[in-house]
């Protein structure tokens, strides 16, 4: 039993200085606004009981866990270890799952389950403060009811509800990502993309094989920025697991974000095709609501200056909002400004409104904000309404537009 206890402790505290005794299930209870999505509370209780040498109670708790999640392979492995430890000493975590010495396939599967235990328990212990929000959700449109933010390092998906433009936490779920990690660059590299995307479709179970579980939701990879950076590939989805599998290891997909079927079903009820943002990050940056509001207002003020300078018909004032790196369709910066000079020469007045604005900060190494809005343009000789998308970057301390086009 001592070997089992030591092995399980190493899983839970790998990379940490604390021991299991320092983080029992009681800690997250102090944050009542969080939804305990999935088996983490019961799993944490199992590890707590093992740490306390309460072996039979740990087995009872594991059995209760399996009654709730019958295909949870990690729980089956822990149960096997607890049963085997009744008859002989264990030499390593997962000995209950290895049939013979040198069984490489079994050893690989146990290593995957060990990693799953680590990320599940670490994410459960290190849950963000409920009053903090992901930095990336600067502003949701009125009709965007929810937003999804994925943390690949923690193998966690966070769901937020839009309450008057302010994101409020709803639930979090364990996820699997690409076999080779994140930061997708090309087709077939088995990596999950990092960036700002949105749900583009809904594929029901009936149109898929069992591999995808209870359904799938394609997302908009590659986006305009990905293409600008030379990234390619396709077929990145949020999807479920096979019917005989509760969850997959943290790195197990070909680039998709994979959830347990029950989690995907719960999440799917909140997703809006063409509207719900899906922001995938290596590691989420969290802001207090005060800091979030300051950053949000700063960019909104810059967008308003751009709008007013466009209405002024002063092309030099208008041009100061554009980066020298600007590219859009056939235009670079010089061609774009020259085009605007020619257009302005034929105008006696311009009125522009920008409404229903959304702003999402890119979580990757390339700092930019994706701004989408409904534009109503009127002048003495033309009227036009469109949905526009801009990419803003920081340049010399100021936000400037680096890409612009129809959304």
**Tally of extended strands?**
20
Unreliable stretches (pLDDT < 50, length at least 5) are 11-33
Q: For this entry, what is the oligomeric state of its chains?
A: single chain
How many whole angstroms does the radius of gyration measure? Answer: 25 Å
Structural class: alpha+beta
Number of helices: 11
What is the CATH T-level topology of the largest domain?
A: L,D-transpeptidase catalytic domain-like
Number of domains: 3
Mean pLDDT: 89
| CATH homologous superfamily classification of the largest domain | L,D-transpeptidase catalytic domain-like
Tell me the span between the first and last alpha carbons.
Answer: 60 Å
Proportion of helical residues? 25-40%
CATH architecture of the largest domain: Beta Barrel
Shape annotation? elongated
Q: For the largest beta sheet, what order do the strands appear in spatially? A: 2-17-18-19-20
What is the CATH class name of the largest domain?
A: Mainly Beta
Structure, explained:
- This protein has helices at 2-13, 26-29, 40-51, 55-68, 73-84, 104-125, 224-228, 261-268, 289-311, 315-319, 333-344; strands at 132-134, 137-139, 146-151, 156-163, 166-174, 177-178, 195-198, 203-204, 215-218, 237-239, 251-253, 257-258, 277-281, 286-288, 327-328, 331-332, 350-361, 369-379, 383-395, 398-406.
- By secondary structure, the chain is of the alpha+beta class.
- It has three domains: 2-125, no CATH class; 132-284, Beta Barrel (L,D-transpeptidase catalytic domain-like); 288-406, Nuclear Transport Factor 2, Chain: A.
- Strands 2-17-18-19-20 form a five-stranded antiparallel beta sheet. The chain has a five-stranded mixed beta sheet with strand order 5-4-3-13-7, with no helix packed on it.
- Strand 19 (383-395) and strand 20 (398-406) form a beta hairpin.
- Helix 3 (40-51) runs antiparallel to helix 4 (55-68).
- The longest helix is centred in the C-terminal third of the chain and has 23 residues, at 289-311.
- It is elongated.
- The model is unreliable at 11-33 (pLDDT under 50).
């Amino acid at each position: 039993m001592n070997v089992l206890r030591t092995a399980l402790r190493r899983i839970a505290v790998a990379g940490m200085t604390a021991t299991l005794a320092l983080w029992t299930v009681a800690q997250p209870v102090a944050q009542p606004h969080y939804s305990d999505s999935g088996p983490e509370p019961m799993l944490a209780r199992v590890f707590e009981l093992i740490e306390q040498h309460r072996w039979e109670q740990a087995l009872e708790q594991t059995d209760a866990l399996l009654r709730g999640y019958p295909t949870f392979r990690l729980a089956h492995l822990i149960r096997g270890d607890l049963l085997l430890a009744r008859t002989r000493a264990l030499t390593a975590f997962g000995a209950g799952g290895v049939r013979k010495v040198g069984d490489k396939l079994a050893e690989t599967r146990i290593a995957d389950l060990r990693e799953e235990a680590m990320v599940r328990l670490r994410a459960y212990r290190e849950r963000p403060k409920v009053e903090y929000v992901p930095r990336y959700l600067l502003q949701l449109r009125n009709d965007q009811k929810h937003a999804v933010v994925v943390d690949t390092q923690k193998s966690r998906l966070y769901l937020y509800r839009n309450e008057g433009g302010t994101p409020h936490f709803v639930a979090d779920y364990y996820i699997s990502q690409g076999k080779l990690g994140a930061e997708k660059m090309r087709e077939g590299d088995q990596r999950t993309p990092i960036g700002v995307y949105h749900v583009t479709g809904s594929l029901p179970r009936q149109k898929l094989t069992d591999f995808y579980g209870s359904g799938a939701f394609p997302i908009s990879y590659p986006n305009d920025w990905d293409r600008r950076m030379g990234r390619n590939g396709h077929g990145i989805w949020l999807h479920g697991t096979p019917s005989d599998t509760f969850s997959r290891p943290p790195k197990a997909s070909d680039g998709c974000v994979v959830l347990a079927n029950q989690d995907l079903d719960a999440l799917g009820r909140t997703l809006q095709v063409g509207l719900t943002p899906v922001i995938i990050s290596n590691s989420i940056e969290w802001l207090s609501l005060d800091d979030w509001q300051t950053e949000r207002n700063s960019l909104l003020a810059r967008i308003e200056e751009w709008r007013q300078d466009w209405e002024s018909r002063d092309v030099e004032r208008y041009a100061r909002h554009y980066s020298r790196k600007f590219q859009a369709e056939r235009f670079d910066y010089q061609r774009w400004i020259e085009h605007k000079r020619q257009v302005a020469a034929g105008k006696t007045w311009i009125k522009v409104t920008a409404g229903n604005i959304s702003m999402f900060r890119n979580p990757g190494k390339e700092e930019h904000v994706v701004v989408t809005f409904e534009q109503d343009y009127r002048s003495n000789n033309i009227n036009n309404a469109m949905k526009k998308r801009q990419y803003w970057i920081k340049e010399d301390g100021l936000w400037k537009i680096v890409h612009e086009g129809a959304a």
